[in-house]
């Protein structure tokens, strides 16, 4: 037998190199995206075991070269930094042969899509004095940061980020829903028509019937928002901000509201619990006992649902994801969703792949057996 077959016959969990992927955030949406990219490119096909633990995932390989190849793949997908170490398992002094176990630690950048960031003064100066309040619009092997007040944007690669690291001022878990009352476009367009500047008047949905607070702010969503629409944003008016980098800006005037994206939550509530016309595949992970729990499972389901909503809203995000047609999606659910006027973004059927499943036909198997008996 070859080395891999003999190793599997003896102990299938025997590994030589492990890659520990970590991200210090309070959600799993980055790992959901990373899982889909790994599946599409079969990057973990050489892994002998995958284990989900707190704050990350461990990948185990039977060869050091396979682990190095996987680490290089991660560096091309998300901004990472890493270190490696090795431990001596055994050695033969006569033949001068040493056996090591290798460990690669990979840390993913803690800044995620839709996060609000206060740039340090050194980093903002290096980017042409952008911001200092910026939104993270996209995460790939580099970060796309956008100033919603001026529509200036800049790409930050992993080397630039880890030279002057910074954390998010507010994360997507702190988004608040607003109602758009008025929109006054300023005819300033950037990003090939993806962003347009406007003055908007908004009010918090939770304030309806309680007070008459109305906020005025600039936004980059002029091409998407109309009076009466709902939008998700950060409430800087009522937020308790405790950030050392923000305190260094003495004369900085913070806006009351920073809108992030248009909200379709009210329309999505009508189809919650119904199957989607598409589905995703998952890696065969072994879940650690410490991770299992009712609270953690509810958070994971909520994060996974938000990740699927992001795939429907962002065509660039799902360009690296393989989507499959859902056989459980029937005509009845399709008819029910078409009766509610304007619908939230959905994925065109042309982008879906057919889920190929090979099943053995019992009748054909019996015919083959009969033919073999005749022979």
UniProtKB/TrEMBL annotation:
What do the Gene Ontology cellular component annotations say?
cytoplasm; nucleus
Report the subcellular localization.
Answer: Cytoplasm; Nucleus
Which family does this protein fall into? Belongs to the NMD3 family.
Which segments constitute the 60S ribosomal export protein NMD3 SH3 domain?
111-154
Domain Nmd3 N-terminal residue range list? 1-108
Return the protein name. 60S ribosomal export protein NMD3
Q: Which UniProt keywords apply?
A: Cytoplasm, Nucleus, Protein transport, Transport
- Tell me which InterPro entries the record gives: Nmd3 (IPR039768), Nmd3_N (IPR007064), NMD_SH3 (IPR048899), OB_NMD3 (IPR048898)
- Name all 60S ribosomal export protein NMD3 OB-fold domain ranges: 175-262
Name its GO BP terms in alphabetical order: protein transport; ribosomal large subunit export from nucleus
What role does this protein play? Acts as an adapter for the XPO1/CRM1-mediated export of the 60S ribosomal subunit.
Keyword Nucleus appears in the UniProt entry? yes
What Pfam families does the record point to? NMD3 (PF04981), NMD_SH3 (PF21193), OB_NMD3 (PF21192)
Q: Which PANTHER family match?
A: 60S RIBOSOMAL EXPORT PROTEIN NMD3, NONSENSE-MEDIATED MRNA DECAY PROTEIN 3
For this UniProt entry, what is the primary localization, expressed as one broad class? cytoplasm
Output the lineage of the source organism: Eukaryota, Viridiplantae, Streptophyta, Embryophyta, Tracheophyta
Q: What Gene Ontology molecular-function terms does this entry list?
A: ribosomal large subunit binding
């Amino acid at each position: 037998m070859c080395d891999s077959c003999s190793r599997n016959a003896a102990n299938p969990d025997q590994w030589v190199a492990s890659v520990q992927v970590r991200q210090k955030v309070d959600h799993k949406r980055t790992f959901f995206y990373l899982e889909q990219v790994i599946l599409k490119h079969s990057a973990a096909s050489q892994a002998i075991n995958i284990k989900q633990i707190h704050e990350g995932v461990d990948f185990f390989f039977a060869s050091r070269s396979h682990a190095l190849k996987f680490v290089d793949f991660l560096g091309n997908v998300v901004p990472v930094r890493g270190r490696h170490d090795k431990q001596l398992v055994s050695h033969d002094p006569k033949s001068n042969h040493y056996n090591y176990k290798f460990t690669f630690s990979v840390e993913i950048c803690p800044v995620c899509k839709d996060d609000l960031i206060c740039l340090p003064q050194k980093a903002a100066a290096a980017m042409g004095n952008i911001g200092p309040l910026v939104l993270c619009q996209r995460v790939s092997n580099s970060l796309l940061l956008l100033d919603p007040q001026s529509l200036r944007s800049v790409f930050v690669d992993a080397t630039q980020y880890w030279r002057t690291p910074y954390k998010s001022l507010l994360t997507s878990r702190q988004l608040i829903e607003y109602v758009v009352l008025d929109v006054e476009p300023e005819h300033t367009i950037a990003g090939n028509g993806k962003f347009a500047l406007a003055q908007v008047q908004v009010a918090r949905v939770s304030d309806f019937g309680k007070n008459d607070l109305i906020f005025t702010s600039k936004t980059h969503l002029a091409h998407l928002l109309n009076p009466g629409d709902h939008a998700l944003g950060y409430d800087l008016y009522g937020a308790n901000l405790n950030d050392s980098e923000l305190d260094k800006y003495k004369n900085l005037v913070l806006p009351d509201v920073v809108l992030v994206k248009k909200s379709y939550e009210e329309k999505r509530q009508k189809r919650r619990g119904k199957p989607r016309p598409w589905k995703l595949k998952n890696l065969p992970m072994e879940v650690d006992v410490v991770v299992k729990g009712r609270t953690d499972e509810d958070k994971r389901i909520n994060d996974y649902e938000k990740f699927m909503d992001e795939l429907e809203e962002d065509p660039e995000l799902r360009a690296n994801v393989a989507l499959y047609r859902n056989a459980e999606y029937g005509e009845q659910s399709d008819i029910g969703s078409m009766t509610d006027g304007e619908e939230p973004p959905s994925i065109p059927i042309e982008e879906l792949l057919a889920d190929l499943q090979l099943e053995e036909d019992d009748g054909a198997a019996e015919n083959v057996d009969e033919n073999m008996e005749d022979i």
